[in-house]
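[retry 2/3] Neuraminidase (Sialidase): previous attempt timed out, resubmitting with same input.
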Amino acid sequence: MRVLLPLSAVTTGALLLATLAGAAPAAADHGFGGSPLVKVSPGDPYARCTIGARSPDSVVYPGTEVEPYLSVDPRDARRVVTVFQQDRWSDGGARGLAAAWSTNGRTFHRSTLPFSRCAPGGANFERASDPWVSTGADGTVYASGEGIDFTRSTRNALLAATSRDGGRTWRNLTTTHVDEQPFFNDKPSITADPVRKGTAYQVWDRLDNDPPGPSSLDGPGYLSLTRDGGRTWSRALRFVRTDAVPNTQTIGHVIVVDRRTGTLHDFYDSLTYSDDLNTVVEAHYAMVTSRDAGRTWSAPVTVARDTSVPEVDPNDPAKLLRAGSTLPSPAVDARTGALYMAYEGSDFSGGRFDSVQLVRSTDGGRTWRAPEAVSPKGVPAFSPSIAVDERGTVALTYYDLRFLKPGDTTTLPTAYQLATWPHGDPRHRTERRISPVFDWLRAPFAGGYFLGDYQGLAAAGKGVRAVLTQTHSGAPHNRTDVYSGSFRTW
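[retry 2/3] Neuraminidase (Sialidase): success.
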């Protein structure tokens, strides 16, 4: 669940795209290639759950699975766990979070994550959101999410659980932090340390609007960690401060670990608002570093400007989309320590629409190169995910609108693309379409047509594995499903 307080800023920013009379010129289609995608979201475990209605205007979309993430066992690339929202609500969160696991990478089986009351043995929250998953070097799978109350209270909490059987069952359900309004915890992610056995890190932003009203926003980054395989977690620690600049929040914290040195790098977006909290006046991506397993952290380093603009249907800007804007996707090359971050930005469209952009650092994050364009010129693109395989090939996945025709306001043809750079060299870039073309406007509506604030990509042996949301036509009770596939990169 993504909370950006000044909602009117989205409306204002939509004017930036009002000059788009039609879709951008179509780019060349490189064909539907690679391993077939397989559905990983069979059935609806929460179909009979009636918990969580907020008001008569609250709409639940049964049978919808959105916002997936995934993890691949570093010992065996065929062992995969995906997580996703199940039965999305229009006004925040879902009935619950679910998981799907596989031991061969082809056949997936369902399990339920215990993060809401709809799940058997679940936490005492009406809804859940923001699924994330990571697998440690010993095979322990760590899952995180957010529990939310809407009718009984304003509680929201960060939750974690572990699996020692590849995602079949979940244990050690832990509330790592809980708050009530005017505080709100948002966008947690979880990272298993690849070199420290039993260690994992959960990071998120904590919005403070106390006292409620303008000129009182603070949104620092918080951290909780486990060093005993998820049995216990530390108290929440503020590790990224925002109080030096009034009305500043962070969002999208994700940690990646340099396997060579054990260094942690946390990436996030920093947003500063006007005094009335209605306009974003400055935005940039930043990174902090820890060389002692999260005990102390460096001062922030600016990675790139956040030039993203509101996500809309370019043929009808009144139709809002909901994808990966403001959320960084980082990765580290395990061989060299080179750092990469993919993100949505409008640098290559003159501020008209978002493309997928990439920045890199070869000196541990001290300095960053200028942005490179990943998605084709003239085509809006969204929700990048990045991974680096074992030979240093950089891979990115993203949605784009290259199949949209000028004047088409009834559908939004969308496809998922995979781009690769062997050894990070853009001169040898390849691209292929890895999904069918589908209509984004069939997705549930939750602050925009919602596929998820993120999708997932992970290194997997001699390639990568992707997970994504895809819509169905003519299926009001099964608007979306989650799919996954593995793809060779060399």
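[retry 2/3] Neuraminidase (Sialidase): The two ends are 36 Å apart (CA to CA).
[retry 2/3] clearing retry counter.
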